[in-house]
Design brief:
By secondary structure, this protein is of the alpha+beta class. The chain has 16 helices and 12 strands.
Length: 485
């Protein structure tokens, strides 16, 4: 049974109160071609944000609003750039208000969908699907969209937001191994490769954050691209990349690996890890580092200069039983003059997993891969909206750990604070009512037990709690109107 007109009116007033806090900030920089599109976007952001992971018909409640939502996502005058413009402006403001370095984490993820016809969306890859009766290996294409995102975080791990994003699809897929059999990939200009997305996002995010020297761009082995190193140097920013290619070094008669083999161990570093069963474990890393003259690939030496970079090698002592051995080789333009400097860079690279957490919230919390929208344009518009919601959940989760004593109004409205005060009892010996105090209350709504021995709440309980908070606040408002009558 749908909501009554009275219920819908109450929900609208509740959403307008909630929007005073964060929705205004994340949409104020949006400039749609039609003001009505901006109004619809704000409404959709509120509706979907109050019921993360639910279908569009469920969050819209009636056919009129559902149809309006479908029209918004399919509108040719709406793009992911329009939807994220306000968020980009907000992250620029948050970065400007933040002291210290900003780490920009880059990664690519895929959104897969089950469709009979892949032409309207595109494909991401081809996978084996078993053997047929004749003994021949079968394969099928996976329908979907690829997204390359760049998440800005503080060195404490607080996500400031997406600084750049790029969506694309493929009409056909050719495996890397097949391509190497026909051409030398190192001789193909970067502008003709999909990997140009790494350079584009590096430039876009650096320009958005407006302080190239404060930015450190971090990527996995897929980002080990010489053109990216040169692009970072040209615009005055920095990078910390897990290296994959054993590049030429010195005068070109040997490689980086040859030089690193000559480097003595500069120190040891103990880290906490988890094994394949999720149990805590420790690893002791042997640390080596060396500054080297690194050369571009032979086919590109006329176009790109040699660079002076530092290589850090952290290798675990011994062989662990229930997990892979840690063996990190990082390359950076940052100065590394001591064991402490090397450990600092390793810890920064360790924060790269946060962008994977962000992608997990998109897929598990927002359920981006369960959408039934039929075209790539509609799906990218929807995923762009999900990006804002996913950032907020992640942001609130990390704020609870990094800024627990901040005022609650930093992330919550007066309405949300009032409802939490009435709804969730304070724990005995509760501290003063800080931001952490209220965020833990939200997590308790999502199933967090808040026992003394429990770790801080994670993203799952936070997004569950936020959805429940909105529904309960709506119920309280509607109930108050009936009592008043």
């Amino acid at each position: 049974m749908g909501l009554t007109l009275r219920d819908r009116s109450a929900r609208g007033r509740l959403r307008s109160l909630e929007g005073e806090c964060w929705i205004d900030r994340e949409t104020s920089g949006c400039e749609f071609r039609d003001a009505r599109l901006g109004d619809r976007f704000r409404k959709l952001l509120t509706q979907i944000g109050s019921a993360m992971g639910q279908s569009i018909p469920l969050v819209c409640q009636d056919w009129a609003n559902t149809k309006a939502a479908y029209r918004f996502f399919s509108n040719d005058r709406v793009s992911e750039a329009d939807i994220l413009a306000g968020h980009f402006q907000s992250i620029s403001d948050r970065a400007a208000a933040t002291k210290g370095l900003v780490l920009v984490l880059h990664d690519t993820t895929e959104f897969s969908y089950r469709r009979e016809n892949s032409e309207a969306i595109g494909i991401t890859k081809s996978i084996n699907s078993g053997w047929d009766k004749a003994g021949r290996l079968r394969s099928h294409t996976v329908c979907g969209i690829l997204m390359h995102s760049s998440l800005a975080v503080t060195i404490e791990g607080v996500p400031l937001g997406l600084a750049a994003v790029k969506f694309w699809t493929r009409k056909k897929f050719k495996g890397t191994a097949a391509l190497k059999g026909k051409i030398n990939p190192t001789r193909v200009p970067i502008e003709k490769k999909e990997s140009v997305r790494w350079l584009e996002n590096l430039k876009q995010s650096t320009q958005l954050l407006d302080h190239p020297g404060r930015c450190i761009h971090i990527g996995d082995r897929e980002s080990d691209i010489y053109e990216l190193f040169c692009a970072a140097q040209e615009i005055g920013t920095h990078f910390l990349i897990r290296t994959y290619v054993d590049r030429l070094a010195g005068g070109g008669d040997h490689t980086i690996a040859d030089e690193m083999d000559e480097v003595a161990i500069k120190g040891l570093h103990r880290i906490e890890v988890r094994d394949s069963n999720g149990d805590p474990d420790q690893a002791i890393l042997e640390i080596r580092y060396r500054k080297s003259r690194v050369l571009p690939p032979i086919g590109k030496q006329k176009r790109y200069p040699a660079l002076t970079l530092t290589v850090i090698h952290a290798e675990e002592c011994g062989t662990p039983k229930n997990r892979k051995k840690i063996d990190w080789k990082l390359i950076t333009d940052l100065p590394v003059g001591s064991r402490t400097d090397a450990i600092e860079k390793l810890e920064w690279y360790g924060l790269r997993w946060k962008i994977e957490v962000f992608h997990k919230i998109l897929k598990s919390g927002c359920k981006a891969e369960e959408s039934k929208l039929r075209t790539a344009q509609r799906l990218t518009n929807l995923i762009s909206l999900f990006c804002i919601l996913s950032w907020r959940v992640f942001w609130m989760t990390m704020l609870n750990r990094s800024a627990p004593d901040a005022p609650p109004t930093l992330a919550l409205t007066a309405t949300e604070i009032g409802v939490l005060d009435r709804l969730v009892n304070d724990k005995p010996k509760a501290r003063r009512k800080t931001l952490s105090h209220y965020l833990i209350k939200i997590a308790r709504l999502g199933g967090y037990l808040a026992r003394a021995s429990d770790p801080p709440p994670g993203n799952t309980v936070m997004w569950r709690g936020l959805s429940r908070l909105t529904d309960i606040a709506l119920g309280a408002m509607v109930g108050g109107e009936f009592v008043g009558n």
